[in-house]
Amino acid sequence: MLVLGIETSCDDTAAAVIRDEREILANVVASQLTHKEYGGVVPELASREHLKHMLPVMQSALDRAGVLPEALDGIAATAGPGLLGSLLVGLSTAAAYAFGLGKPFVGVHHIEGHIMANWLVEDMQFPCIVLVISGGHTQLVRMPRLGRFEELGATRDDASGEAFDKIGKMLGIAYPAGPMVEKLALRGDRNAVPFARARLKDGEFDFSFSGLKTAARLVLERDGFSPLTHVPPLDAGMAPGERTLAELEALPQRAFDILASAQEAIVDMLAERLVAAVRATEARHAYLAGGVAANSRLRQKLEGVLTPLGAALHFPPPKLCTDNAAMIACAGSFRLRHGFVTGPDTRGFARGPLESWA
After folding, report:
1. First to last CA, the chain
2. Residues 50, 56, 59, 65: what is their CA dihedral angle, to the nearest 10 degrees?
3. Cβ atoms of residues 159 and 134 within 8 Å
4. Rounded to whole angstroms, what are the CA distances from 228 to 46, 206, 211, 242, 264?
5. Smallest Cα–Cα separation from 57: which of 85, 89, 81, 88?
6. CA distances in angstroms from 238 to 155, 191, 229, 232, listed in the order given
7. What is d(CA 113, CA 8) in angstroms, rounded to the nearest whole number?
8. Structural contact between residues 77 and 348, judged by C-beta atoms closer than 8 angstroms
9. Which of 223, 232, 256, 323 could anchor a disulfide with 187, C-beta 3.0 to 4.6 Å?
10. Count of alpha carbons within 13 Å of 36, Cβ hemisphere only?
11. How many Å apart are CA 24 and CA 200, to the nearest integer?
């Protein structure tokens, strides 16, 4: 089965062609750089950029895969959650393309796509626990079988990736800050600042990162690292208060210690909930999904705490952790193979639960 996948939930315009749920024939991503000077994604600008890139990216994916549109067996696109304007560009383009070709079309939940990125690497083992961690989502999902999703817990405020981005922004790190926070944290002492770990008594598997974000801000302000008030030149392509790479690397050791300690607090909270879920369900396999799954310290920590429990940790390579269309094509392939088809009037949604189809 050949499936074209489309992903436009945020600021990346992506298209991919996969065969039989796993073989990636092409995986093209056009990242938008226009948001850097604003310190975050501007929804209206993102929608306009998707309009410019969508068709060329689709054609590039088909060309790289060596596949003619008529040879496709189906088309899948992210229906949500995400930025509505961005979603509508990809969703309406994909649905119209499928309609014109007379091919089946299916809308895919963005989180299901992230989870199924693991299938692109190996057959997933069920039952399992999935820790979904990205800039917009942090949740624990139990999968008793393929296509069945049972949410165990979720964040009550900020997502883990959002915590990385906001703490990094306080220090002048460009959006998205997570990768640079991880890099600079390698130079710090992760036990230097005793940040508290949020533990919610009435929600064993829920998360909360807003308190850590506030604590990090107070420490950064106290030590004179934040807030930053300098305004870069208009032609620098930088957001107000943003530091250059050279300025970041020249910061005092204390700044790296704060970042390392904040990262360790995030990692500890994620690990604690995942361990609790594995113990409660007696799962023998745990999977990571989403952009934060690329964090090397997190992977190291989770492998250390899960191995004594007899549970194996699985995760996609970094290029499949961030938003991409191969994961959407994979999830769509399974849905199409099992007869789930949505029409050209499929609606996009900014928020929505992960729904089972099996």
Report:
1. 20
2. -90
3. yes
4. 26, 33, 21, 8, 24
5. 89
6. 30, 32, 13, 6
7. 12
8. no
9. 256
10. 15
11. 41
Grouping H, G, I as helix, E, B as strand and the rest as coil, residue 214 is helix
Q: Which of 271, 330, 333 is nearest to 302 (CA)?
A: 271
For the chain, list the domains and their CATH numbers: 2-116+322-337 (3.30.420.40), 128-315 (3.30.420.40)
Query: Residue 236's pLDDT is what?
Result: 63
Give me the sign of the Cα torsion angle 181, 183, 184, 189: positive
Q: Are strands 74-80 and 12-19 parallel, antiparallel or unpaired?
A: unpaired
Sheet with 74-80, edge to edge strand ranges: 23-31, 12-19, 2-7, 74-80, 105-109
Structure tokens at 215: 């604590």
Rounded to an integer, what distance in angstroms lies between the CA atom of residue 255 and that of residue 181? 11
Contact 300, 166 (CB under 8 A): no
Run means of pLDDT, 10 residues per run, the chain, 358 residues: 96 95 95 61 85 95 97 97 95 95 96 97 97 93 97 94 94 91 97 91 85 95 83 67 91 97 97 95 97 96 96 96 96 95 88 92
Unique residue bearing structure tokens 């801000």: 217
pLDDT of the residue at 32: 59
The two beta strands, 74-80 and 105-109, are: parallel
